[in-house]
Design goal:
Elements: E1 3-8, H1 12-23, E2 29-35, E3 39-41, H2 46-51, E4 60-62, H3 63-70, E5 73-76, E6 79-83, E7 88-91, E8 96-98, E9 101-104, E10 109-110, E11 121-123, H4 128-139, E12 145-150, H5 154-166, E13 173-178, H6 189-202, E14 205-207, E15 212-215, E16 219-222, E17 228-229, E18 232-235, E19 239-240, E20 258-260, E21 272-274, E22 279-281, H7 290-308, E23 324-327, E24 333-337, E25 340-344, H8 345-361
Parallel strand pairs: 1-2, 1-9, 2-5, 9-21, 11-18, 12-13, 12-18, 13-14, 20-22
Antiparallel strand pairs: 3-4, 6-7, 7-8, 10-19, 15-16, 16-17, 23-24, 24-25
The structure holds flavin-adenine dinucleotide (FAD).
Amino acid sequence: MKKTLLLIGGGHAHVEVLRQLALNPPPDADIALFNPSPSVWCSGMLPGVIAGHYKPSEAKVNLWALCQRARVRFFETSVLALNANNLVLESGIGERHRFDFASFDVGCVSQPIPIAPGAYVVTVKPIDSLLAAITEFESVRSAGLIVRVVGAGAAALEVALALAYRWRESANRRISIVASTRLMVGYPPRVRALALRACKKLGVAVLENKVVEHIEPTRLRLVGGAPVDTQLTVLATTSAPVALLQRTDLAKATDGSIHVNANLQSSNHPHIFAAGDCANVSGLTIPKSDVYSVHQGAPLAANLLASMTHSPLAPYRHSPNVLKLVSLGDKRAIATKYGFSTAGGWAWRWKDSTDRTWINRYTLD
Ligand SMILES: Cc1cc2nc3c(=O)[nH]c(=O)nc-3n(C[C@H](O)[C@H](O)[C@H](O)COP(=O)(O)OP(=O)(O)OC[C@H]3O[C@@H](n4cnc5c(N)ncnc54)[C@H](O)[C@@H]3O)c2cc1C
């Protein structure tokens, strides 16, 4: 009998699933993908898009074209809710879809901070609102601009440095990072030192151990400290689950992401799978990073196909010691692995080549 598989979100793992489905089309299957836009960004290239090293078109995967090749129906809409018990999905355009199997790769969002009406705040994910804000500021003759990037991790650092590089000739645009902890917490201390040096070079101020409790139109209110002024606030805070996950009956991990077993199956509904930033694999601590979403793509594809054909499933094998590359705005990057960290132009070229190789794999001529 024909089986229906619904893919929710066109993230990095599902892009590989689409490629595998094109190579090995399952017999008797009706497959659909739901994503709010017809393309998805290669997240590693986002800082390069902001800095001006890449055109947006170089950094996006065409989901619609991949779906066509894989004979997967494409719905340009978000998913609003999913009932795993009743096997029904509700889409953002008010349609209900029944399914036999479903798979989530919807990423995550920035942890929200209370915002007062009138404050100009954009989040780094999805990146489109930040790119629109940048273009808007560049299209008007403005006096000064104070940009505060709120966050302590790689995304905050990369975005702040990319903006500083993009606006390196505009002395009246001041960019700073407001971090609730020390910058690059969780990385070796040398990474923080390299990051601070890069910030100094590009004129990005770093305020550490400042917890933002409220974003107001002209200032950030800090816990136990004097407020700091702001005009444009960019949220690059730690990750939080997308709203959809609260409207499912799937078991969640403590961070709110979907709890899955080593086969990437939901721990309470084995016909539902999840991968990437929205999944929490039992017994593993996996950083929210496109590297792991990419790694999970092939095992996820294999297990989805196996489920539909009643074949045995195989576990995802996690490699914790991957090379981490953090871009520094000016075509340099920090490279860190096994506690050893360094920075230079070669690391950016390595990152550039890795990202281009990934995106070329999904680019159809
Ligand atoms: C500025 C920036 C720079 C980064 N740089 C790096 C880097 O250099 N290296 C690295 O490893 N990581 C980097 N990251 C982290 C990286 O973005 C994520 O870890 C990665 O994108 C996660 O991939 P994913 O497959 O889980 O989801 P994503 O790639 O985020 O894709 C999720 C997809 O699901 C869609 N979606 C969301 N909600 C719904 C819904 N309700 N219904 C349907 N579809 C939905 C989204 O629109 C999106 O298309 C960076 C992040 C940012 C913000």
